[in-house]
Amino acid sequence: MNILITGIHGFVGSNMVKAYASQHTLYGLDIVAPEVEGVKKTFSWDDLRQGNLPEVDAIIHLAGKAHDTKNKAKADVYFQINTELTKQIYDYFLASTAKKFVFFSSSKAAADRVEGDVLTEEVQPKPKGPYGESKIAAEQYIFSKEDVREKEGKSVFVLRPCMIHGPGNKGNLNLLFAVVRRGIPWPLGAFENRRSFTSIGNLTFAVEHLLAGEAASGVYNMCDDEALSTNELITLICTTIGKKPRIWHLSKPFMECVAKIGSVAHLPLNTERLQKLTENYVASNSKIKQAIGVERMPVRAAEGLEQTIKSFELCN
Asked: 181 and 316 in contact (C-beta within 8 Å)?
């Protein structure tokens, strides 16, 4: 296939090039355009507006403003990038000869916090903050054009991945790795929260099957088959790098009290951060597995995380 990937120089885009370059002809669309092995040519957003892009079979839209965990980014920046750029590339897709479009939204577009045991695609979206709100606005624009898409016989897949990780990842998982590697104890061992992750291997596998198969258009959660607790994740990091886990099971009431003091005194551990660090966020991937015709994803959650941790170790 001829595939156009926006944001091709980012973490996910770079891994897609490694996964797809031997089987497909890849083009990039990005704000920077260095030559990359495996990519035939990278275009700019001005090329898109001027109609200078090549004809392709599919478009994978990765370009976006990532979630700023420090809350320093202005709200309008998220909408300018996550919403408005999506509108531009999706309008181009509808007018082009391309037949399939994959939009990388986010699980945060559905819910900042999971109500109940598992997050499914049937949930009524309730994003919190400009990141999730800008992603759901982009989704809504895409589905507002359903009549045009169906008339042209095109398919669109909106993916809502949980935390994506793999070689080159510089997000929260890397921060946790750095803390554990320095031997700093984890004081929240009494909180047995569970979270879903998405290994880059499972992600590239699922996207390629969506492009090659006959899955129905729609919204799909994306995550590994298994969810892990933070305690399990820390133990996995330590096992991988040959360190003994240092997990302190301090009482929940005590840590909640510490967090309240932190909120008043503006310390790193406050009530909001404690909630984020200890909440459950488990998503279901049943719908996408059924769509691509598999019973399980090829990479086990622990296996994928181990590969990512080893890549962090090599960079240190």
From this structure: yes
